[in-house]
């Protein structure tokens, strides 16, 4: 396993999560500052997409480690394999699938979610973001 790459992925994920939470805090506390709200909403979308790009890198490392990696595998298929191999549980799988679909709607600009939908999703599953980091860190110890 490329531990240096995994360390970078973990650092990037942690930074992304901190930034997402900062955006949520600004959106909750600076309701009268239109510019801050506008920038925070835009940043939140981009950070959410970035988290999933990092997630794809993590999935490829884990799939290689368990000898299930295939060139061109989709994130959807990767998540199924991770669930089937006990790396993620059903609840985490549901979170990641819902997140993946939201990310696609943002990235591909079809039926783009409203900011409120994205914020609700992030708040509902906030603890799951850190769970992904814990899964990644478990591979550092192996």
Automatic annotation (TrEMBL):
GO molecular function terms listed in the Swiss-Prot or TrEMBL record: hydrolase activity; RNA nuclease activity
Keyword list, A-Z: Hydrolase, Nuclease, Toxin-antitoxin system
TM spans (from-to): none
Gene3D superfamilies, sorted: bsu32300-like
InterPro entries: HepT-like, HepT-like_sf
Single GO cellular component term: toxin-antitoxin complex
Family: Belongs to the HepT RNase toxin family.
Full protein name: DUF86 domain-containing protein
Species whose genome carries this gene: Clostridium saccharoperbutylacetonicum N1-4(HMT)
């Amino acid at each position: 396993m490329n531990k240096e790459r995994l360390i970078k992925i973990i650092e990037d994920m942690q930074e992304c999560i901190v930034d997402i939470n900062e955006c949520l805090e600004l959106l909750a506390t600076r309701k009268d500052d239109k510019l801050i709200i506008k920038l925070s909403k835009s940043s939140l979308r981009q950070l959410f997409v970035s988290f999933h790009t990092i997630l794809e890198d993590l999935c490829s490392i884990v799939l290689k480690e368990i000898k299930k990696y295939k060139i061109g595998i989709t994130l959807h298929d990767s998540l199924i394999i991770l669930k089937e191999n006990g790396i993620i549980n059903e609840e985490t799988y549901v979170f990641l699938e819902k997140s993946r679909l939201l990310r696609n709607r943002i990235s591909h600009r079809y039926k783009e979610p409203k900011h409120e939908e994205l914020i609700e999703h992030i708040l509902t599953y906030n603890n799951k973001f850190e769970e992904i980091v814990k899964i990644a860190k478990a591979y550092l110890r192996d």
